[in-house]
Design a protein that fits this description.
Layout: E1 2-6, H1 10-19, E2 24-28, H2 32-39, H3 48-56, E3 61-64, H4 67-71, E4 76-79, E5 85-86, E6 91-92, H5 95-107, E7 112-115, H6 123-130, E8 135-138, H7 148-153, E9 158-160, H8 165-177, E10 185-187, H9 190-221, H10 225-233, H11 254-264, H12 272-292, E11 298-302, H13 317-326, E12 331-335, E13 343-344, E14 347-349, H14 353-359, E15 362-364, E16 379-380
Parallel strand pairs: 1-2, 1-4, 2-3, 4-7, 7-8, 9-10, 11-12, 11-15, 12-14, 15-16
Antiparallel strand pairs: 5-6, 13-14
Helix pairs in contact: 9-11, 9-12, 11-12, 12-13
């Protein structure tokens, strides 16, 4: 069976990899350099498991920039293009998804479209009405950046927003590519599947916000954050997971998904969803104020990535801290080895770690790093457990 995957980000590439174990998979990518890397057995994104998976070979996977090549004779088209949140419209920008659906309608109307991109509640029904001759299914992804392949090989669940035969066939393809045999599978209507995705990510954001506000309280009153978290987590209904304080939730998914869910609550009574979104701003304000209380002359930002094991800077919480500190006129320098430019938002990028540690009075790190141990007295972090 031929399957087309559109978009080679972490969602598209990880799905392409697991599906290519047992099917012919052609990835359609607008960035020719990304396509070339995949064709050479290399990953264009940082994900250790994915890199090793591609390098070992044995996958029926190739990438192309040619639409006709990608769509010819395909049975499924998996859409994994970005849907960034647009603050002007207060909704996801679904233009890329809609464009792919238009392309499929022209080049592969016989195929089933599987939307993996995160979309607003009600989107699938809208595009179905616009393309009544196409089979369009939404199947949300639940992947962590930096662990995308692992989460596809060992999925917590598979959700497919359709109950027809094509939906069941696609779920079977995902199960075939997984290494676990007891994966829960849920078939729902499309709109419910869209809501599952947004509510799941907003719950995760709520949990991050909760433990961050616990930490803010403890720091303000001179209390031991770890003791409080561990005592709270002993309740089995709460548990000792996903509880490590940070500078705020960030990355590609949680900030935009919480805002999109808030927008979907228009005309629906709510307090909690709005509070979750606002709490992230409050946390960054607190962290920046706490850093400035040290009266630094030069603040060093150690790594800009959203989480360890990822190369994604998008909406990383440390950038929010950086902007707040710069707004107070404090010099900021950045240590981020993956940056090619010599400046980031008009702040000097220092690639030599020793120089960086020497220049900065305070080193801001969202997560502990062994290479900062020699200057531990300079490091500002709220990390307790050394994990995301």
């Amino acid at each position: 069976m031929k399957i087309t995957v559109v978009g080679l980000g972490y969602v598209g590439l990880s799905n392409a990899a697991i599906l290519a174990q047992h099917n012919e998979v052609v990835a359609l990518e607008v960035d020719a350099s990304r396509a070339e890397l995949v064709n050479a057995g290399r990953s264009p994104i940082i994900d250790a498991d994915l890199e090793a998976f591609l390098e070992r070979g044995g996958l029926d996977l190739r990438a192309t920039t040619d639409q006709q090549d990608a769509y010819a004779g395909t049975s499924f088209v998996v859409i994994a293009t970005p849907t960034d949140y647009d603050p002007d419209t207060m909704h996801f920008n679904t233009t890329s998804v809609e464009q792919v659906i238009d392309d499929v309608a022209r080049h592969a109307p016989q195929s089933t479209v599987i939307i993996k991109s995160t979309i607003p509640v009600g989107f699938t029904e809208r595009v179905r009405q616009a393309h009544p001759d196409l089979r369009i299914v939404f199947s949300p992804e639940f992947l962590r950046e930096g662990r995308a392949l692992w989460d596809n090989l060992h999925p917590s669940r598979i959700v497919v927003g359709d109950t027809g035969s094509e939906a069941k066939e696609f779920a079977a393809l995902l199960l075939e590519g997984a290494e676990d045999g007891d994966v829960p599978v849920l078939f729902t209507e499309a709109t419910e599947a869209e809501a599952i995705k947004l509510f799941a990510n907003t719950y995760l954001a709520m949990r991050v916000a909760y433990f961050n506000e616990l930490d803010t309280y403890a720091a303000t009153h001179g209390l031991d954050t770890r003791s409080i978290i561990e005592g709270v987590g002993l309740d089995p209904r709460i548990g000792s997971h996903y509880n490590n304080p940070s500078f705020g939730y960030g990355g590609y998914c949680l900030p935009k998904d919480t805002r999109q869910l808030l927008a979907n609550y228009d005309q629906v009574p709510q307090n909690l969803i709005h509070a979750i979104v606002e709490s992230n701003t409050t946390r960054k304000d607190f962290i920046a104020t706490d850093i400035l209380a040290r009266d630094p002359k030069v603040v060093g930002m150690y790594r800009l990535v959203m989480k360890s094991g990822s190369d994604n800077f998008r909406s990383s919480s440390i950038q929010g801290i950086m902007k707040r500190i710069k707004a107070k006129g404090i010099e900021v320098v950045v240590y981020e080895p993956s940056l090619d430019d010599d400046a980031f938002y008009h702040s000097r990028v220092i690639r030599d770690l020793d120089e960086f540690m020497s220049v900065a009075d305070v080193i801001v790190a969202n997560r502990h790093a062994e290479e900062l141990e020699t200057v531990r007295d300079k490091v500002y972090t709220r990390d307790i457990y050394g994990r995301d």
